[in-house]
Specification:
The complex is a heterodimer of chains A (84) and B (172).
Chain A (H helix, E strand, L loop, with lengths): L2 H15 L5 H13 L1 H22 L4 H21 L1
Helix pairs in contact in A: 1-2, 1-3, 2-3
Chain B lengths: L1 H19 L2 H18 L6 H22 L35 H8 L1 H8 L3 H12 L4 H8 L3 H20 L2
Helix pairs in contact in B: 1-2, 1-3, 1-6, 2-3, 3-7, 5-8, 6-8, 7-8
Classes of the chains: A mainly alpha (84), B mainly alpha (172).
Chain lengths: 84, 172
């Protein structure tokens, strides 16, 4: 694979990971990565990074924070009910 | 209603902690989000509009808090700044250490030291894009609405931020 191929691949990896590329473009990237260890490593690393972020984002907040939020809501609603 | 109000505060906490790095401000930002959401709740028609409204509101509150802080270290900049001015040479901007906040142990467990350090090393404007897109799951269009930049710019920043995060996590 030429350097140009690698540059093209790197420019489109983010869109590839987001599923924004057409099937033919995805196929080209996957074929390239089968032969290019360097690009394959970048794709794997970025996929792992994105996965870590999404995993962290979907994890529930610590109980102490959630309990604080729930207490504040209960307090606010009780105050508003009392004030009519 | 209760669920939306709790959700608003959780968004406020995550934004304050992860994007601004001000765990000590999080409580105020949560309270502000609670009151504003309570007042806004009767006007909610579309869930997508509520999401962008909520993130915009929290973002603005964090910005205002930052401007009001009298003890803020001089090296901090707005979360709107910090992107590369030109070319590929740019400097990450430090934020205050969130470990000083009240929920240090819980937050370490929640996010993990390595990811938190990698996020902290990003320029603030990139950190906000990663937070909104990857961690909160907003679409590119929603992120553009919240941040006031174009969708193309969101994609560019996200692509660069992902590369920088990968480098940080892999110790490159």
């Amino acid at each position: 694979m030429s350097d140009r191929d690698c540059a093209d691949i790197l420019a489109h990896i983010s869109s590839y990971l987001d599923g924004e590329l057409a099937a033919t473009e995805c196929g080209a990237i996957e074929r390239h990565c089968r032969d290019c260890e360097s690009c394959a490593s970048v794709v794997a690393g970025l996929r792992h990074t994105v996965g870590l972020c999404r995993e962290a984002g979907s994890a529930p907040l610590p109980d102490v924070v959630r309990q604080r939020a729930q207490e504040s809501v209960r307090k606010l609603l009780a105050e508003r009910r009392r004030d009519g | 209603m209760e669920r939306l109000l709790v959700q608003a505060q959780e968004v406020a906490f995550r934004f304050s902690f992860l994007v601004c790095g001000h765990a000590q401000d999080a409580e105020d930002v949560m309270q502000d989000a609670l009151l504003k959401t309570y007042r806004h709740i009767g006007r909610i028609r579309e869930p997508e509009h509520f999401r962008t409204w909520l993130y915009k509101t929290v973002r603005n509150t964090c910005l205002m808090k930052r401007r009001r802080r009298v003890d803020e270290p001089s090296h901090l900049v707005s979360i709107e700044q910090g992107g590369p001015p030109s070319g590929d040479g740019f400097t990450a901007v430090d934020v205050e250490d969130p470990a000083r906040g009240p929920d240090e142990a819980a937050m370490n467990t929640w996010l993990g030291d390595r990811l938190r350090a990698a996020l902290k090393a990003l320029p603030p404007s990139y950190r906000m894009i990663v937070f909104l897109r990857e961690m909160e799951g907003l679409s590119t269009r929603e992120v553009a609405k919240v941040t006031g930049i174009t969708e193309a710019n969101v994609k560019t920043r996200l692509s660069r931020a992902r590369g920088m995060l990968r480098d940080q996590l892999e110790g490159v």
